[in-house]
Amino acid sequence: MLTRTITGNGCGSALVLLGLLLLGVSCSSDIPEKPVRLATLVGTIRDPDGTPISKVIVSLGGSHGYSNTITDTTGSYRTTLPEGVYEMYLRSRFDASQSVPEIEMAGIRIQAPTTRFDYQYRGFPVTGHVFGPLGSALDSVWISVYDRETEFYTRVLTGGQGYRLFLPKAGRYSGSVQPARRYSGIPSLFFTDLAVARDTILDFRLEGNAVTGTVSLGSTVPVEAYVYASGTRNAEARTESDGTFVIYLPTGHYDWHIDPIGGSDYIYPLYEAGPDVAGPATVDFDLSGTHWSGTVRDSASGAPIESVSVEAWLGSGERATNVTDATGRYELILRSYLRYNISLGPPNPSLRGIPVYGLLAAGDSTIDLYMAPASSARWFPLGWMPTPKRPEARTAGARAPDGPGRGRRTPRTAE
């Protein structure tokens, strides 16, 4: 009797299997697959002039494997991968003497025993420097260039000698110039219709007015925070240990976001529409607000619980967080006349926090919170704490009679 074998998904039905058996056909999906052979990929990376480029990271990825290698002083690279089709990604290493644009290529087929794939950057070079607010050249700045018509994209990181990138043709490009180091206080630059000619020397200037200030509680306690300004330009800074910061902004309109971090993250972030910037200025932010404190206790025994994470949050995802001390105490400082939810992070899996929803920050309060056994009901209806409505404070951040407001800041022009 002739016996044939069918592989794949053709035997998924019992009726099909019975019919195949009656015909003398067996069904198997366990036939060993042909082993995948390893292949060596070699090549050289060159600039448009044909000069080999060293310290280029050559990354390959696909369904068969992944690899990272770096070109040597002759611009050559070598790696071993299973046979298959891969995507290739080229970028400069951080210490490369010549920074090259990042390039992505798909459909690189690698076959055993050896496959060669060389790449030469095309187009004409554009070189230049990026200058900062104090007039000095900056390194570690990302320059991204995009052509909407051809969907060409390239990105390069400036070094001590400036930058060099390659564009396929003269024309108009969109892109951005952004500091690679976050919280430097230096503004980003975005352009949408930049004319670029062949062999261009193109310098960028990330300049602005020096805006200095202090983030504090009651103008006395320094607050560690990130300072974000968005509007005419975008820039971000981080306060020093004394709460001071400096950020550089061109003249224009700005919104501010102050986000406490580290030991100050028990303070809820502050959002301000303004102040705008018309010149060098001093802008201080006082994050004082409604003060909530209390003790986290065991719902059965009333004993205080240490190391509980207490979070007050809104739907936006922003939150203030504090961890209870040895006596179970916590404290939070919140923006006044907003409604908050409170959730508790247990110190061990045997406990579950009893949440509180929609609590109005209408004034300084002592609020005790509770933990229950994890085996208890998932939802705790008693965790809801209704609060009276304040008609005069319906708008978030509005000032209620005899209550603190959000305190929009007015810049003081530097002398």
Describe the 3D structure:
2% of the residues lie in helices and 47% in strands. It has one helix at 14-22, and strands at 4-6, 25-27, 38-46, 56-62, 65-70, 76-82, 84-92, 103-110, 114-116, 119-120, 124-128, 130-131, 137-138, 141-147, 152-157, 163-167, 171-179, 189-196, 200-201, 204-205, 209-217, 221-222, 225-231, 235-238, 244-249, 254-260, 270-273, 281-282, 285-286, 290-298, 309-313, 319-323, 329-334, 339-345, 351-353, 356-360, 365-366, 369-373, 412-413. The strands form 10 sheets. Strands 21, 22, 25, 28, 29 and 39 form a 6-stranded mixed sheet that branches. Strands 30, 33, 35, 37 and 38 form a 5-stranded mixed sheet that branches. Strands 3, 6, 9 and 10 form a 4-stranded mixed sheet that branches. The longest helix has 9 residues, at 14-22. Residues 1-11, 14-18 and 380-415 have low confidence and may be disordered.
List strands and helices in order, with pairings.
Blueprint (H helix, E strand, L loop, with lengths): L3 E3 L7 H9 L2 E3 L10 E9 L9 E7 L2 E6 L5 E7 L1 E9 L10 E8 L3 E3 L2 E2 L3 E5 L1 E2 L5 E2 L2 E7 L4 E6 L5 E5 L3 E9 L9 E8 L3 E2 L2 E2 L3 E9 L3 E2 L2 E7 L3 E4 L5 E6 L4 E7 L9 E4 L7 E2 L2 E2 L3 E9 L10 E5 L5 E5 L5 E6 L4 E7 L5 E3 L2 E5 L4 E2 L2 E5 L38 E2 L2
Parallel strand pairs: 1-2, 3-9, 3-10, 11-19, 12-20, 21-28, 21-29, 30-37, 30-38
Antiparallel strand pairs: 3-6, 4-5, 4-7, 7-8, 11-16, 12-13, 14-15, 14-17, 17-18, 21-22, 21-25, 23-24, 23-26, 26-27, 28-39, 30-33, 31-32, 31-34, 34-36, 35-38
